[in-house]
Amino acid sequence: VEHITEEEKSKIRELKSVIDHELTPDLLEDKSLYYRFLKARDFNLKHAEALLRKHLSDRKTYLGENFKDYYPPEYIKEYLPLSFVCFDKEGSVVLYLDLGRTDPRGLLSLFTFKQLVQFVAFNLEENFRLMTKESIRRGKSVTKFCIILDMDKLNLFNATFKKGIETLINGFQLYQDNYPERMKSVYIINASFYFYLGYPLIKAILASVLLQKIHIFGKDGWKEVLQENIDGDVLPAFLGGHRSDPDGNPWCTSFLVFGKKVPEELYSKKKKSIVSEKGVKKLTINRFSSSEIMLHIYEENTCIEWEFETKVKDIGFGLYYKDSSKENSRIEELIPKQRIDTMLSSEAGVYSCNRIGTYIIVFDNSYSWIYSKELYYRIRLKKPKMIN
Predict the structure, then answer these.
(1) pLDDT of residue 357
(2) Which fold has domain 281-380?
(3) What DSSP string runs through 22-77?
(4) Of the CATH numbers 3.40.50.1820, 3.40.525.10, 3.90.180.10, 3.30.470.20, which one belongs to the domain with range 75-266?
């Protein structure tokens, strides 16, 4: 990273000494990591550390221990139209997202919020790697990317779809917390009256530093701006450049994905519910509330198995550990708390307990201002002999 003051270098060394040993190998490869998180918190060391630790937790939740093992769910590449376009004149990655033609109802019926976040995060990570290679090729640091959000064909039905807007709000919030100082420019093109129906709700949660990078255009004026920043030879013809497919197609469908309706038959099958199954318990969790289930484990390598679903919306889930043999032992996070949508299927998981003590499953509804949640769950403990 260029143009760092001596004071900033000192802050970077301090933050590195505190948390460097907790970073995964791929994060250690990111030479701009400490600078970006410090700058996002005005070089306040304590706040930057908190933000970076949240990133580690979110990364574990959405990308797992090793995102290189990630394999996208079937159909997600076809119906979530996010594509790499090219590099701009300064070497930044340019992405294209065809939001206007996207089918939010179909997309959110076919995939969970976590699956959508995983796919976008995986794509971002891959593109950051491309920028690292481009930095080496150009002999200068390139750490930020651009995105073109195309609102062409956005209709009233989709522009006012509440769950779609909520998904965008939650997605942008996650982006801001996990990728500070990564965005160079956002070009929103073909914005019609319908776009402005939902945009104020999203705008309200965006940080001022990100808002300053958003450029909104109607049908005109945006091609000239793109041409100023992206070479015409690599910019697709429909976006104002000269690039087309080998067959002359100006839409460049050989490497760009466009939004389209998700066939209803892909998601119309009703999920199998666990509500009436043996051993399932019902729990009502009020708004602004959470519920804890204490599990006392007396034998190492006991497995905790869980399965749960809600009638509507999502529920927060996390797993924690407390050493019950020590009077003042602190509670340790094992599975970071995350909001899980069980609309498509019940959520099932397992954890192998390598220590004797108290394990705490938390179902969290503290983020909901309006809705209580009706939860159905089943928890089993399997001792090592049963597992064998």
Answers:
(1) 96
(2) Jelly Rolls (2.60.120)
(3) GS-HHHHT-TTHHHHHHHHTTT-HHHHHHHHHHHHHHHHHHH-S-GGG--PPTTHH
(4) 3.40.525.10
